[in-house]
Amino acid sequence: MTTQARRIQLQDNLNRTRQALAAACSDAGRDPRSVRLVVVTKTFPAADAAALVELGQADLGENRDQEAAPKAAELAAMGLEPVWHFVGRLQRNKVRSVAAYADWVHSVDRAPLADALDRALNDNALNGSALNDGAAPARGRTVNVLVQVSLDGDVARGGAPVNGVEALAEHIAAAPSLRLKGVMAVAPLGWEPAKAFALLAECSEAVRRIDSGAVEISAGMSGDFAAAVNAGATMVRLGRNVLGEREPMA
Ligand SMILES: *Cc1c(COP(=O)(O)O)cnc(C)c1O
To answer: Does residue 90 contact residue 105 with C-beta atoms inside 8 Å?
Structure first.
């Protein structure tokens, strides 16, 4: 497909997706401005991500650092700096890389991972201040963090168990370079999305008792975002609706 044809297709898909999201908000009696659209560009080339930013889509998501880091660098080299959301399973040995480009990490699900991310941000700041020796210490970058919840307790697929959400949220709230912002989940396979997102809303309440500002609820993918919006999602993570079907992952 030519670049121009792809750009038109992305524009159409983006418009249609924004309209569908606005309709879901209206059905739920909510202001469309209360839900942030994160377009998940995983498996699609940097050129698609760049086209989306040029079309006014500010928030982009990725789920693997190996793919996200070079894509973020490619866009930055073009002068494009979207708000990057890291939404996938995260290993401790990747946090340093992720900390360099991600503004949001939706998938913090255990205390050692939170600590590693916090340390990586602190170290980046120290390295920065070493460059201007004697000047005011560089203000460390902070990252917005969501507690990923495993709604069905199958933690092998990512997420903290529901009964561990509060302790993890408290841990994140105490980390100097992390900003506790709320919760995230993927509806478990075979669950009614409404039931899954209602349980996530309860987790959100528990987290807001720790920090009243941690109001974000990241929920809803291409197949179930209307149910998520109905249950109070403030961020939806949509890939296929905007970019098209993905090639099966290797
Ligand atoms: C891929 C992915 C999405 C987007 O899924 P679609 O079905 O393409 O909308 C959302 N959240 C996470 C965590 C993902 O990995």
So the answer is: yes
Does the beta carbon of 40 sit less than 6 angstroms from any atom of ligand 1?
Answer: yes
CA 195 – ligand 1 centroid, Å: 19
| Distance (Å, whole) CA 249 – CA 222 | 17
Q: Is the CB of 222 under 6 A from ligand 1?
A: yes
How far is residue 162's CA from residue 231's CA, in Å, rounded to a whole number? 17
Whether 88 lines ligand 1, by a CB cut-off of 6 Å, is: yes
- Asked whether 117 and 145 are in contact (CB, 8 A), the reply is yes
- The pTM of the full predicted model, rounded to 2 decimals, is 0.94
61 alpha carbon – ligand 1 mean position (Å): 9
Q: 215-246, pLDDT tens digit by residue? A: 999 999 999 999 999 999 999 999 999 999 99
